[in-house]
Amino acid sequence: MGYVMNDDVTNDIMQFSDFEIFNSEDDAKRWRSIYDSHSHQSAGALVSFEGKVRNHNQGKKVEQLYYEAYVEMAQKEGLKVIEEAKLKFSIIDIKSYHRIGQLNIGDIAVKIVVISAHRADAFDTCRFIIDELKQRVPIWKKERYDGGDSQWVRGNTNS
Prior knowledge:
The chain is an alpha+beta fold. It contains 4 helices and 11 strands; from the N terminus they run E-H-E-H-E-E-E-E-H-E-E-E-H-E-E. It has helices at 7-14, 25-35, 71-88, 119-136, and strands at residues 3-4, 19-22, 39-40, 45-52, 56-57, 60-69, 93-99, 101-104, 108-116, 139-145, 150-153. Strands 5, 6, 8, 10 and 11 form a 5-stranded antiparallel β-sheet that branches. It has a 4-stranded mixed β-sheet with strand order 2-7-9-4. A two-stranded antiparallel ribbon has the order 1-3. The longest helix has 18 residues, at 71-88. The chain starts with a strand and ends in a 6-residue tail after the last strand.
């Protein structure tokens, strides 16, 4: 069994680890264009999650987000989460990234792609990963509100 893709796509995918931190939307778009386009012969399900910047939080109008990370530790802890998911669930592959820096309304802040033989494992894995990333990975979020005020906010794992 193997991936169904040409050598150029295989080489592009191998440039990325299972968990990435991107400061550039261009890098995130490249990741999505490469990873979203490949498949595995034994895959029966591909589940993806995109966490997007929304225009409100707790009754306030949000205009922009800024993410900051301790990149080396975030990368290391993100990879641990992915490895734990691979041991816990019956999946074929997982890839994920989280953006840092300034993001606008509608931008993708975090993306997770899970490939599995069956949908239940893929959905459960995706949920596990986003919950663990939000709890464990050292990434901080600052919201900028209508009127210019801003504040650092704690991520909600139940959202």
